[in-house]
Amino acid sequence: MSTQLKDMLTSVAEEERARVDAAHRDGDTDAYVRTIRPRRAARRAGVAAVALVGVGVAGAGYLALGPSGTSLDPAVETPTPTPAALVSDPDAVAGEPGWTVADVVISPGVTAMTAAEAVGAAAADSVACGSLESFAALAGGTDASVGAAKNLGAFVGESGAATGVRLRSFESVEDAQTYLGDLESIAGRCVTDLEGEGMQARASRIALTGLPGEAVTATLPAGESVWRLDVHVIGADAVAIVTEPGADVAALDVIAAWVEGAVG
Questions:
Q1: For the chain, what is the domain count?
Q2: How far apart are CA 201 and CA 163, in angstroms?
Q3: What's the chain's Rg over C-alpha atoms?
Q4: Are 118 and 219 in contact (CB under 8 A)?
Q5: Distance between CA atoms of residues 247 and 95, nearest Å
Q6: Which domain holds residue 135?
Q7: Where, by residue number, does the polypeptide cross the bilayer (predicted)?
Q8: How far apart are CA 250 and CA 243, in angstroms?
Q9: Which of 208, 210, 218 is nearest to 241 (CA)?
Q10: What is the pTM of this model?
Q11: What are the Cα distances from residue 209, in Å, to 39, 165, 213?
Q12: Which pLDDT score, from 0 to 100, does residue 140 have?
């Protein structure tokens, strides 16, 4: 691992550990109540707001009150800026509006939670687990790597849990492979740290049947579910997928859709 990446991961981990430790001192149950549940509720409310805003605008013309003693004439409707509705495009590929996987349209700008937020204090206290945030963002790498990662957003289903997606192109195949190797090492240390706390976690480097390239996946316990990070590499191109506990869209479905668009 490059010195640059080590320094960056250490800095990120220390900041994340301090922030999450302050927020989750009462254990994993409180971590869920304070972090996961409110975030999901807000996402569901946002979807509902998009659906209801049309009703509010339509009804506004009948709520204007005239001066005392005058009739209540319909008010002139004034267009109100509203959030853009998410419209599925079956022909869209990763990075294009309307990209749809498992009947869920990607929501631009949404970011999935970190391992520390989902798992709680055990992950926050581990430098290795905290460093997974950098890999989830496809940040860092060798000095020769160029190009910042692109946050495509997240697939948010009825549960309110997100499956976040980022893309990055490295300078070379060698850079991408080195990055994947760094992740494999860090994820393995995270698993060891969590196992030391009596938690079951997994990390492995795999090739998915029927798909080109290879991936590193890390699965960490989060209450009765899991938080998962997958980084899949084809040549010099990489996709990072963070699956929140209880998410409706699986990482493997996203990887398959990305590969289909990238090489199909």
A1: 1
A2: 19
A3: 22
A4: no
A5: 20
A6: 3-263
A7: 45-65
A8: 7
A9: 218
A10: 0.71
A11: 34, 21, 10
A12: 86
